[in-house]
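re: that complex we talked abt at group meeting.

here r the seqs, copy pasted straight from the sheet so there may be weird spacing, ignore it
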Amino acid sequence: MTNKEKFLNLVSKEETKTVERAKARIAKKAYTKISNKIAIAILTRLDELKWKQKDLAEKMEVSPQQVNKWVKGNENFTLDTLAKLSQVLGVELINVLVKPTKQKAEEVKVTSSDDYSFTNVNKVVKPIITMSDDSLYENNYNTLTA
Amino acid sequence: MEIVNIFAYRLFAFRYAGEVDNEYDRLLDLWDDMEYIYNFLKENKQDIPKHKSIPQIAEFIIEDAIEIDEILIDITEADDKTLSHFFKPLHNLESGARILSLQKGRQFCLRIYAIKIDEDTFVITGGAIKLPLQHLMEDREHTRVELQKLKNTQAYLDEKGIYDRESFFEFLNES
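got the structure back, here u go
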């Protein structure tokens, strides 16, 4: 009998959910990273303020269990909650930086054309002016062709 | 103690008496609990380099945990990759791996410990957060416990006639 065969005889018949649990964690990794960072920021700030979780619960008018859920990470915060938390804790928990991602947009395709020419046309809109004698002065579009 | 199959009859884990989960599930859940991570880092601040903060190390841990899940799913679903690529012998009970991490500038703070059964079969005995400035496993209580678990499980397997030629292994997501 090989070492592995002897080993397999010791293995429990019970099925585990390890693969499913790992895949579920991977599936929500983008959101988990953010909620975990927020949790660490809250815990750091509570220490700076020398507050307990129950102090924050009172100020936020939520249960201590709710605050505990926040600091464990994995909480899907609403913007409303984050804004209120930022105000109560006196720190900025959301910092929105709009910057282009390195990833190219998939739908954008650059193609070339063999026969390409253009005419640049600028149209200037001139209004119809009502003169003091009730006559209309109408200026047609001025068309400039490049 | 009990051994359970966790990934495709290639990777197994111990479940110890009194624990609901096997060691892999227990550790990955623990490393996903920011309250636990934060308190652990505060208690072990002496092992964090001066130029790194608790939130920075916490971020490394969050990334490491996701990476461990991804790598293990990837290896166990692919036929051409063996677990031996990622489980490396515990040299000097860890100081070697730590120095490598520091040289690369990126701290790898999570460890999964295992015993090798054959080239592509490992059984996880436990794991730990091992901070950059901690040298040997014997240096801290939480890793001393893990070392003891490795020794106990090795003795258990030995008693059942399963030999372990190359001693202890750890999962490295640095390669």
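couple things i noticed - Residues 141-146 of chain A have pLDDT under 50 and may be disordered. Helices of chain A lie at 3-8, 18-27, 29-49, 53-60, 64-71, 79-89.
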